[in-house]
Amino acid sequence: MAAALCLLLAGTLAWAGAAKAADPAPFRFTLRALTSTAGARRLAVAVPALELALAALLVAGVAPRVVAALVVALLAVFTAALTRLGAVSAACHCFGASQSGAGRTRNALLAAGAVCLVVWPAGALWRVDAAELAGAATVAAGLACAWQLTTALVRP
Fold first, then answer.
1. Handedness of CA 117, 69, 58, 96 (dihedral sign)
2. pTM, rounded to two decimals
3. Cα separation of 57 and 51, whole Å?
4. 44-54 pLDDT, tens digit each
5. Could you give the angle at the alpha carbon of 137 between the alpha carbons of 22 and 153, nearest 5°?
6. Do 21 and 156 touch, CB atoms closer than 8 A?
7. How far is CA 136 from the centre of its chain?
8. Which of 2, 48, 109, 121 has its CA 20 to 30 A from that of 41?
């Protein structure tokens, strides 16, 4: 289970970080609703770098409890930002979400997974045997698909 959670969190962070790094303009626009133009510019570089670094550290199993705790903290900051965006009637469009409620729910579920990794760390994924890793990847992909299906069915 820890390997599946690790893959899910690392994949989510890597996807989010790569998307923001590849096209920072939408993220920077969202950040401008929360901070100054200069702050938005700096955060548009720092946040994707942090997401990618945390994803790599999760997969590598470096200080797994500390990294998982940092993921919890990052998700808490993202959730606070989503709440603030809702208060100013702005949307983040994170992973296609048009409402901050879905983003907060997603973050809470991911944070719950990260808390599990604080308690039961996964370690380096390349030390997991192939059958367990394949099972973990299947579970992680299934959870991601279940989230996408649920959000698609709930949208008005």
1. positive
2. 0.85
3. 10
4. 999 999 999 99
5. 70
6. no
7. 18
8. 109
